[in-house]
Amino acid sequence: MFRESLGNIGVALREPEEFAWRWHRLGSPYPWWVFAALGLTAIAGTLSYGMTIGLLGGAPRMLSSALSCTVAAGIAWSLPLPALYILNSLTGSKLKPSTTFLAALVTTSWGGLAMIASIPVNLFFTTALPYWPVILAINLVVFAGVGIAMIDVFSRVMAKLEPERGRAPAIWLFLVGAIGAELFYAFGLFQFAVIP
């Protein structure tokens, strides 16, 4: 059973469309901790990448940036999720709330892995060119790249679940991006300073 669940997590991250389609088609084939593991993947990605954002401010800034990044990303994804389900239902979607949640969770997990993969890029440019305009530009490029990848994953999952609706539900992710950008600004994540 443990091996099967680990296999399910692997499928969720390699083939998110098939993972979500299996849930939609079979009902509830995954145990609760598969969902927890997917959530932890997203948290690990935002925590680890957030630490690199605060690199120039020393350990306290790295810790606060890691926590702020995770909280901002969590709020940005959680806040519009009910609206996604409601708007999808109003426009003809037949997905259950759990399937919509699963599509978002798989997407955030994939985004967490993309953030982890982006850490070397951010570390390199932060240490090689420790000037706030360069660091800001690199972080914006990374977040844009991760966002585009997440839009692709989410739209592919939704298109697999409801082929007649296509990738239209991915428009919701622009709201996620706007809320995330506002929270990142409000939490001071893009204020880069070298240790005095």
Shape: globular
**Class derived from helix and strand content:** mainly alpha
Number of strands: 0
- Helix fraction bin: over 70%
The total number of structural domains is 1
Q: Summarize the main sheet.
A: none
Number of helices: 8
Distance between the termini: 53 Å
Quaternary status of these chains? Answer: single chain
Low-confidence runs of at least 5 consecutive residues: none
Beta-strand residue fraction = under 5%
Rg on CA atoms, Å: 18 Å
Note the run of SSEs as H and E.
HHHHHHHH
What is the average per-residue confidence, as pLDDT, rounded to a whole number? 87
Summarize this structure briefly.
The protein has eight helices and no strands.
Structure overview:
- The protein has 196 residues and is mostly helical.
- The chain has one domain.
- α1 packs across α2, α2 packs parallel to α7 and α6 runs antiparallel to α7.
- The longest helix has 32 residues.
- The termini are far apart.
- The mean pLDDT is 87.
